[in-house]
Design brief:
296 residues, alpha+beta, Rossmann fold, 2 domains, nine-stranded mixed beta sheet, eight-stranded mixed beta sheet, 17 strands
């Protein structure tokens, strides 16, 4: 069975046996499923495909990136493998690898081997598709972000920051105290430059918060959060804005083609969208200060 999905205006496909039990556990993709939609003349074909493989991948490999040894954090390790790459996934570093993704150098086609419990296989499928999207979408002026995003007044506001900074908490504060606020995505939205406008899109990937919306809005502002004993906000200059956004986008800069494409998109984003630094407490006052500053 092959199913087609459209995220941020880009179409990709997943191929697995019809009877694979994972099909019944991928509800997060339902809002993005276009399998039944006819192809229109001139419509772009899938920009990547992931196909389930029968066996694990073996052979020589060269380490390009190893996940930090942080307790409780997922493992995503990248290797040079033949003429392409191999990615290995595990939910945490204390359990065996549950997914291997062998992908070509252009990130257009990947073969995925999964093992372990159904829960771990689904983890591998989700992470393989996220990985492929982040890398394959770079030439399409798209950035897969680590951010929480709310919508207010027809615009999207992205909250960035290190893990544990309080991105989700700040979104919840907006939802609670700022009337008319709606959550778009709580972990992995996509920012894309479309016809000169910077837009943010919901995706099938939203961390621990189930929020899978096939919606998009223009970006109103990007805010990097930092925990502090008092609330204070300032607008960032071009260099600070670029560094803040770059630190939160998925990709692998040593791969030159990815880095060059993302640089062009990052430059367009920080030129087209105001970026801020919010030093804050996890309280109502922080949300109101942020909203009154950025939502002009």
């Amino acid at each position: 069975m092959v199913r087609r999905y459209r995220v941020a205006g880009l179409t990709f496909s997943l191929e697995m046996p019809d009877i694979h039990p994972a099909w019944g556990q991928l509800d997060n993709y339902a809002p993005f499923d276009i399998t039944a939609s006819p192809m229109h003349p001139g419509q772009q074909p899938e920009f990547f495909t992931v196909q389930l493989a029968d066996d694990a991948f073996r052979g020589e490999r060269e380490v390009l990136y190893k996940s930090p040894d942080v307790p409780g954090e997922p493992v995503v390790d990248l290797f040079r493998y033949g003429a392409g790459y191999l990615v290995e996934f595990a939910p945490v570093n204390t359990v065996p690898v549950c997914g291997q993704l062998a992908v070509g150098a252009d990130f257009r086609f990947g073969k995925l081997s999964v093992c372990g419990s159904l829960e771990r296989q689904i983890f591998a499928i989700n992470n393989a598709l996220m990985f492929m999207f982040a890398f394959a979408s770079a030439p399409f002026r798209a950035l897969e972000m680590h951010a929480s995003v709310v919508m207010h007044g027809g615009r999207g506001f992205l909250f960035l920051g290190h893990s544990g900074t309080g991105k989700s908490t700040h979104s919840r504060l907006w939802l609670r105290y700022i009337a008319g606020t709606e959550l778009l995505n709580d972990d992995n939205p996509v920012v894309r430059v479309v016809d000169g406008t910077v837009r943010v899109f919901g995706t099938p990937w939203s961390g621990k918060t189930p929020c899978y919306k096939a919606q998009d809005v223009p970006v109103g502002a990007i805010v990097r959060l930092r925990q502090a004993p008092e609330n204070r906000i300032e607008r960032l200059g071009a260099v600070g804005a670029y560094a803040s956004v770059m630190a939160s986008c998925s990709g692998f800069r040593p791969i030159r083609s990815i880095a060059d494409a993302q640089h062009e998109t990052l430059a367009a984003v920080v030129q087209g969208v105001p970026c801020y630094q919010l030093d804050c407490l996890p309280d109502e006052a922080a949300a109101r200060l942020c909203q009154s500053t950025v939502d002009e």
